[in-house]
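The instructor's notes for this session suggest beginning with a concrete chain rather than abstract definitions. Hand out the sequence below and ask the class to guess, before any prediction is shown, which regions might be ordered.
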Amino acid sequence: QRIYWRLRGYNKGSYTYTLGGVIAQHWRTPKHWRRLDREAIRDLAPYEGRRIIYVPLQTEPEASVSLLTPEHSYQLTTLSEISLASPADAIVVAKEHIWQMGRRSDGFYEAIRDMPNVVLGHPMMDSLDLIRRSDLVCTITSSAGHEAAALGIPVVYFCKYGYIHGLDHVHACTGLSNIEVIREALAPVSEAEREKRRRDGAKYFQAIEAYCLNLDDMEIHGREKEPQQDELDRLIKHLLKTFPAGFNGTAQGKALAGEIAG
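After discussion, reveal the predicted structure:
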């Protein structure tokens, strides 16, 4: 396929991964699967009684990491800082992303292995179950942070953007200068506070369902056809719902709605 792209003169044959890199990835993928089958954990039973800090590793390159959080684009450094900032009774579970298999170097996994309080989580671990059993979720921009927040689990979020910061149990860490926020997020709280986190998380989930739009049926990825009017109407409807109450009825709101529709 890559040779065909090059012969046809397609840009994607010249400005994406090199042919050698793609071949090397296909060679590394089964090798890394075998390695993680040997070294990565699949359950938390051996760490019963210890506090769990879940760190979902993310795919690279990825715009949500490289562009939104360039200071954390090297995930191994961020993981190392989380490890150093974690209390002695905590274990950090760094779960590999299934689509990242074969894309990292051997040294990446060796570095994680050498961190004394960090264990590598197998890609086939159930992420939602791991979130529920965690005392804290640390993430750069992973959706696991939103899932944890909705469940009332404390989150340390390494991206300064996003409405997730509106929750009290989400702690911002926009640089390694305030990495000590991890200990703050792990501080013991009353049952009343835990119940408040669960209520706030439920409201957060309801707000996402009410104001966000599921684009799965619009075939966004790999799409070639132009958007249809009914699709544009759905997008506009959800956008207008995010405006403050009463705004859409004002002259400014009507003008903005007409401009968007146009």
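Then share the key points. The first strand starts at residue 51 and ends at 56. The chain has a mean pLDDT of 88.
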